[in-house]
Amino acid sequence: MTYAQEVGERLRRVRAEQGLTLQDVERVSDGAWKAAVVGSYERGDRNISASRLLELAEFYGVSPADVLPGESRRTLEASAGIVLNLDRLQRLGDGYAALRRYCESIQVQRGDFNRRVLSVRGDDLRALAVIQDCSSDELLEQLEAAGALVQDVEA
């Protein structure tokens, strides 16, 4: 099962638990959420962006964690947060551009522009995984393989 399909299953379950049909979602949202689009997210036919996923979770009145696939032990260990090597992250290809922009937005929000590392909360790790269209575990593996995951926070 792909990550998009796992997210879709979670979305479908949350909607069903609220007793809503796809048509109900469109009606209650005054058309902000089209039944066909939500259905394609639920089937995993269409990838949902991180921002839209957060908006849909908010519409359903649930935590974003409720619509993201489960986590492994490694992800749970990282749930307190991780530290990214921004120099190494910068050297990664175009496939990481959105992830870099998200990290830059964190820096802007914090007013932190001169650091070479960035501490990322566990909740942000999930958002980064959605941005990269992978699971949190897969993202951790990718970052570790690229040397962008700082193992020793004191370094």
Question: Notable features of this structure?
Answer:
Arc Repressor Mutant, subunit A, two-stranded antiparallel sheet, 155 residues, 2 strands, 434 Repressor (Amino-terminal Domain), mainly alpha
**Count of individual beta strands:** 2
Assembly state (oligomeric): single chain
Radius of gyration: 17 Å
Order of helices and strands: HHHHHEHHEHH
Mean pLDDT: 84
Structural class given helices, strands, pairing? mainly alpha
- Given the C-alpha coordinates, what overall shape results? elongated
Query: CATH first level of the largest domain: which class?
Result: Mainly Alpha
Topology:
Layout lengths: L2 H15 L4 H7 L6 H9 L6 H11 L12 H5 L4 E4 H6 L5 H14 L6 E4 L1 H10 L4 H10 L10
Antiparallel strand pairs: 1-2
Structure in words:
The protein is elongated. Strands 1-2 form a two-stranded antiparallel ribbon. The chain is built from 9 helices and 2 strands. The protein is mostly helical and 155 residues long. Helix 1 crosses helix 3 (35-43), helix 2 (22-28) packs across helix 3 and helix 8 (122-131) packs across helix 9 (136-145).
